[in-house]
Records
---
Amino acid sequence: MGTKTQGLSTRCIHAGEGRDAHGSPHTPIYTTTTFAFPSTAALLDVVEGRAAGSLYTRYGFNPTIQHLEVKLAALENAEAALAFGSGIGAESALFLAHGQRGIICLGDAYGGTMELLADQLPKLGIRTALLLGRETARLDALLADGYGLVFLETPTNPVLEIFDIAAIAQTVHAHGALLAVDSTFASPVNQQPLGLGADLVVHSATKYLGGHSDLTAGALMGSKDLIAPVFGWRKNLGTAPAPETCALLARSLRTLVVRVRQQNTSAQRIAEVLVRHPRIRRVLYPGLPDFPGHRVAASQMSGFGGMLTIEVDGDATAAAAVADRLRLFAIAPSLGGVESLATQPVTTTHHGLSEDERDRRGITGGMIRLSVGLEDTDDLVADLEQALA
Ligand SMILES: *Cc1c(COP(=O)(O)O)cnc(C)c1O
């Protein structure tokens, strides 16, 4: 079993794993939906929380799910973790469990998250406030008005805006509120929000944690006290992950560190090449010294990530022409996998927004977001250069 004092790679491999009766080094897939008990008293011990055990898979009480959750908690040095059937499943349960006093979203967020916060949760009577990064100063007044949860992504999609987690945590805690960070773009390899003062961390495990574009899952990590109320929402929203997915995710997590470090290295090199390219107007990447968020990123991240956004010299049609000429990068709206992907925010993630709203958030037609995979860096650079030629 992995422990807190071990390095992240060791925890990724060993946390939550234990030899089973046959000597399997990894937890098998228990496709089982319900589990039998030797006695009513033993069943009650699990139902009433006195003993950990398997009971019913939708509750998450299945060894394949529970062992994965030990590994997920270890990734963020958290006391507890819950696995979900998707990243948005994790966020829905988080908002319902901890958002009663109101939710402030700071900066841009994933499309589905925005739909929940702007439209769906307010219809249930949950008040939400959506602030741009440059409106961070309004946080104090809103918190004074009693909002109980602040949610942010860092780095954000697609402009890679960086928020100072430690500084924001201080403001949030001064008002007795909670800070939840969607750390999907960074992954636990590059950023550890709980160590910086955040209360909860959420991941779309569909991205770097899964890493192969072959599974959909989510994760929420935090203290036992803060995770406990989320459990009931996951149970009754029915968003626990399938055991098959959990085994696949545990398999992927064993190589998380080497994957992400290589993606960091490749993305940095691509950013440095493209920033000098005559057909590129801007490269948004936290690892570039003159990127606005670079200083904060360098202080709170141990790597700058595999995501960058380039802005070609031209409009959405010009950017589409470049994307269409890419051969290795596939045109697809996800990220974090072994294969490199390219997507235009205006055609996918931010397609539904008005022109004005895109302007407000700094999203332009010429932008192409790149998710750098694990192909040879030289091949990726060559692909981008031929597409831009
Ligand atoms: C993809 C994504 C989500 C949603 O995750 P799903 O697994 O698709 O539900 C949430 N936040 C971020 C930053 C994402 O990239």
---
Amino acid sequence: MPSLHFLQCLPFLILVILHFIFLARAQLPGTWEILVENAGIASMHTAVTRFNTVVLLDRTNIGPSRKLLRKGHCRSDRNDAVLKHDCYAHSVLLDLATNQIRPLMILTDTWCSSGQFLPNGTLLQTGGDLDGFNKIRKFDPCEPNGSCDWVELDDVALIDGRWYATNQILPDGSVIIVGGRAANTVEYFPPRKNGAVSIPFLAEAEDNQMDNLYPYVHLLPNGHLFIFANDRAVMYDYDSNKVMMKYPPLDGGPRNYPSAGSSAMLALEGDYSTAVIVVCGGAKYGAFIERSTDTPAHGSCGRIVATGPDRVWEMEDMAFGRIMGDMVMLPTGDVLVINGAQAGTQGFELASAPCLYPLLYRPDQPGGLRFMTLTPGTVPRMYHSTANLLPDGRVLVAGSNPHVFYKFEVEFPTELRVEAFSPEYLSPDRANLRPVIEGIPETVRYGEAFDVVVSVPLPVVGIVEVNLGSAPFATHSFSQGQRLVKLAVTPTAPAGDGRYKISCTAPPSGRVAPPGYYMAFAVNQGVPSVARWIHLVS
Ligand SMILES: *[C@@H]1O[C@H](CO)[C@@H](O)[C@H](O)[C@H]1NC(C)=O
Ligand SMILES: *[C@@H]1O[C@H](CO)[C@@H](O)[C@H](O)[C@H]1NC(C)=O
């Protein structure tokens, strides 16, 4: 009588299933919140400034956004294909203290451009499409109540027009601009005498669906660049324009645009001689050419010690296939993988099956156990979406517009909502461990010893870390210039009144941490403080 037995058991089975569904939901770590219901624009490029504001940036020739420029500030452009007289904002500034949005005025097209913060905290922004192709712009951030805005530089331009390029700040504070569509060269800001220098590796990595665009560029602590394009990587000495080392190809197909993987360099620590690079996810080769929206993405990650003698990729699978995921370095050294889809490829309307589950990658766990699945979001974040670490430890999620223009009544609509994801370290039951930075210098020099004073509700057991997080330029599922540097610290010493003193040493050189503003986090047993911005200078 199996069927009777089954029927008798049914209510119980349903209870068990419901229980598991509830538990699965309730127990996954992390929480989501909507910060802004309508940012006015869909952010394609996002960067956090040292004034705790966030620059959101789209492209210009996209027609009406949902935010007007200030009264009397319109942009007239005879060549704009959509709006010759455009009174809409295509960039806005979000104030993290109030969640208010202020329109910014960008004059030339920033579609698929690149960016990086300079040592003085100015955001440099390069290239784009059409009138933006050779353009260099800057944004000098100001107090949230200020009126700073984009400035187009008229005295300097890119030598090679660039879209889909990657920028990386260098140890001397200049910026290298790497690759781009039909631009297999590098050049610099400020410009160097030798102009745009051809780099054959980028040309070799180009295939018939491109796949060498938005290369993953990481500044290694030995001063060379790790450049990953398509399925391969080199160590590149930009001063001599020489490839110092070729890494073996990474299995699993192409990873860069349009094949939509992501990459991060793990935290630099100890004697800073070792750098480990991780590359995760991607589309199946051919999905872009075939315009296939339902080809399953793959979930493989490769990890390599870029500075080591054994050049091997250690492989590990994520729980989900994923394209267009963003890899965000958290203050702890763990990496959040967030946003994206499970099928298709990068490009307009070329993906499906949003991947709503963020993953936490824990580098210190043994291989095979490093990924943990976190609480899913509810808003699909497809093509042209971004993720950035905030100074309070949350992760800002913005954008998603897989369409050529703004479209709302469709599948995967243009997304104007800005969300924040709070990793588990911000959960209330860990609040007693959360340090507050009471004292920290505003400026430190390379190699300088300095003290950080923190207070913590519960007595500190063990060592409180002090970790510096850069503010990267996030676009197209890669954070340009992202790095986390763990400082050398002495054992935490009680300083009375629940306070503790941590003696730290600033990074030894610009190779380990290029000059500029960093978010300094005190991290106690995996729980980060709110960061204080610290200016690292030579
Ligand atoms: C920062 O440096 C850039 C490039 O030299 C310059 O254009 C900008 O005005 C500087 N910003 C500030 C605030 O001094
Ligand atoms: C803006 O804020 C700063 C810092 O809080 C303050 O010093 C300044 O007076 C304010 N400026 C205006 C115009 O309100």
